[in-house]
Amino acid sequence: MIGIKICATGRYLPGEPIHNEAFTSIVETSDEWIRTRTGICYRHIADGDTTWHMGAAAAKSALQDGGIDPERIDLIIASSLTGDYATPSLSCLIQKEIGAQNAMCIDINCACSGFVYALDMARRYLACGDVDTVLIVASEMLSRITDYTDRSTCVLFGDGAGACIVKAAEKLFASHLGADGTGYDLLYSKNDPPASPFTKKPLIEDAISKTDRKPHSLFMDGREVYKFSISAMPQAVRKACEKAGITPEQLDYIVPHQANVRIVQTAMKALKLPMEKAVLYIDKYGNTSSASIPIALDALCRSKQVKAGEKLCVVGFGAGLTYGAAVIEC
Ligand code: ACO
Question: Which segments carry the region annotation ACP-binding (predicted)?
Fold first, then answer.
């Protein structure tokens, strides 16, 4: 089986870390509630930055890490639910900024599972032999869609970007991706309703359009998403391991989507794995949606703990609902 080699990683966090205490003057909350219920202490929130700029900064950090010429990138896959523009795409803006003029550019939006979906796509392109070097960038400015009057969500999210550069290699790789669209109304951000001189009929309604949530502000049914994630995460890891022909116990690291430390603890327990194997940076960065896994991956790779041949599993879940896991041999 053709797998992938992670050649380089990078990350970018905007501004200074913002402590939980900063939220106590905005909504009724406390540092203690946020820390004990989520594991979050700090997050970065953009001030004057853009999603494309954060993504390009993370990509440049990865290019520098691997000593890779941007002209050698054949494909850029950018993941975001908080892009700057409906069009042009985030990947095109990143391509321009880093000077990767030989790259095809694709954007995906699979919410917090986006990085795992992007990795799976990259592996398929690489396995076909059509491309040699793929840059994956996940950049999220959740502050753009966060409702800072809603204490149940505003304390959770952070802004940031993570990147990784991959090539084909004779290494173990297996992925398991999935979605459950019936949960589409558990986590959403509405767009503005379309207006045209030809509009005569009312919009076809769905559970989201019927709500009176402000356009572009994120709604989450936290308890339902929590329930979904504690079952989807271990299941996705088990299925990816099964496809890779290994057991979860043979994994050296789990790099999970960083939404809530309690979700990770419950999933690790279900998998019968020690918490030491979970790579967690939620205390520093909060939930950065699809950027959370590549940010954690970069921190792990730069800590130089990872040895050749070790196996890690990236696993994500999020709006859609979507989920996915991929086993990678380092
Ligand atoms: N400070 C103080 N109290 C709060 C806060 C806050 N920031 N937020 C909620 N509360 C209160 C609630 O109002 C509630 O009060 P009540 O009992 O008087 O009604 C109480 O705390 C408990 O609320 P719960 O929602 O039951 O709290 P819970 O322990 O479930 O934690 C949380 C909430 C952190 C949101 C949790 O449900 C969670 O992590 N859900 C999953 C989130 C997730 O995984 N998202 C992933 C996708 S994100 C993406 O795709 C962008």
Answer: 258-262
